[in-house]
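Lest this sound abstract, we think one record worth quoting, the chain in one-letter code, the fold tokenised, each line plainly labelled:

>
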Amino acid sequence: MVYMFIAGTAVSMFHLFLSPAVNEDDIRPEEWTITAEQMLKECKEAEDIKVKNNGRVLELKNSLGDAVRYEPYRTLIRKRVNSKGHMPMLQHVKRVKFRLEDHHVIFDVIGLNGKKYRAAFPIYHSG
């Protein structure tokens, strides 16, 4: 039993050493994926979508009438609902730009390390 515990722990430790190191200024790939999937879901369900503050803010109105905002805050992108709360979505962000183009929301991000990211979400409703 003790041997199995030690062997299992050793495998976990090897995984940590063999995993590629993530620079602390990098946007973590799993955070990018989760943020993009959440924004896609919000865009699908939105009844109205607006880009505000020169492309720095994306505001969506959902079927419940809630105003959902994605906005920069320090070095992250946060989500707020009805101007309340603060849910960090994506860390290590230097710059964010939203724009509406050809029935899509285009989401451009530059990480603290200068790496560029982009996602596009279709707009299903027009307000």
About this structure: The helical segments are 2-18, 29-45.
